[in-house]
Specification:
One of its GO terms (molecular function) is ABC-type transporter activity. The chain has one domain. 68% of the residues lie in helices and 0% in strands. It has 11 helices and no strands.
Length: 273
């Protein structure tokens, strides 16, 4: 009897997960393409928007700020490759998490009226950032082919994407649940991203930062994601071997924590809409 009940509970759990994922993909497709119906360029804006944002950051760091690396030999590759290696995944993460605090509050009626699982909403925001990642690394790959700066470690990019999606999903679930009860969460997250772009080792090597400020880099969990991408894309070797351990661990902890907090708080969402 207990075995039968346990098996039935397990089957129901798997069914709920599959339903949540199915709705996540449906909502992602709608959110990506529906806003551009009737536009002259249509779905091309899905490519153009992340491409334009990436070009703006390239201009800022390469021309306006004139940032240069310390401790990296020019023979290892161009500064553009180094910059985009960390910038593209960070912009992808940013695009997802800035929407997360209002995932539930802004779409509560959508979930209620269409029987959509609440968890599908932050997961939709996670998947919506994929065009930024795909467009960014496709453009970077073309640039590297022309400049003959390819490394075999580029084959690790799909693995890094999976880990990044796990991290993003976990944080998105956490922020969306907290955002229902703490409405200032969106402003806090936006302020964090405003500052974090310059505190992450995207445009510089960590060793080039004064020792007094280095703790700000190492306590940031997203630092290890950036370092892994730079190893795979720019250096071609595991220059930061510790990051390849810390990054997956942080992603797993974030996913488990986000899932647990979301499950605990979701029954009370209706009272705070």
């Amino acid at each position: 009897m207990k075995a039968a009940v346990g098996a039935r509970t397990s089957d129901q759990g798997r069914a709920r997960i599959m339903q949540t994922l199915r709705y996540s993909f449906i909502l992602t497709r709608q959110a990506l393409f529906d806003p551009f119906r009737g536009h002259v360029l249509g779905g091309l804006w899905i490519i153009l928007n992340p491409l334009l944002i990436t070009l703006v950051y390239l201009f800022l760091f390469n021309v306006v700020f004139i940032v240069r690396m310390n401790g990296v030999s020019p023979s290892q590759g161009s500064y553009t490759v180094f910059l985009l290696a960390g910038l593209v995944p960070w912009l992808t993460m940013q695009a997802s998490l800035q929407r997360s605090p209002t995932s539930i509050t802004a779409n509560h009626s959508l979930a209620e009226d269409n029987n959509v699982p609440y968890a599908s909403l932050p997961l939709r925001d996670t998947l919506m950032s994929l065009p930024t990642w795909i467009v960014g690394f496709t453009a970077l790959g073309a640039y590297m082919i022309v400049g003959r700066e390819m490394h075999w470690t580029l084959l690790l990019l799909p693995l890094l994407l999976v880990v990044q999606l796990a991290l993003t999903a976990g944080v998105a679930l956490l922020l969306s649940a907290v955002g229902v009860f703490f409405r200032d969460a969106r402003e806090v997250v936006n302020s964090f991203f405003l500052v974090a772009t310059f505190l992450l080792p995207i445009a510089y090597q960590p060793d080039s930062v004064p020792a007094l400020l280095q703790p700000l880099i190492w306590i940031n969990p997203f630092t290890y994601m950036v370092l892994c991408y730079q190893d795979a894309v720019y250096f071609g070797v595991a220059m930061h071997a510790y990051a390849w351990i810390v990054f997956p661990v942080i992603a797993l902890v974030a996913l488990l924590l986000g899932t647990r907090v979301f499950a605990r708080l979701s029954p009370y969402f209706g009272a705070f809409r």
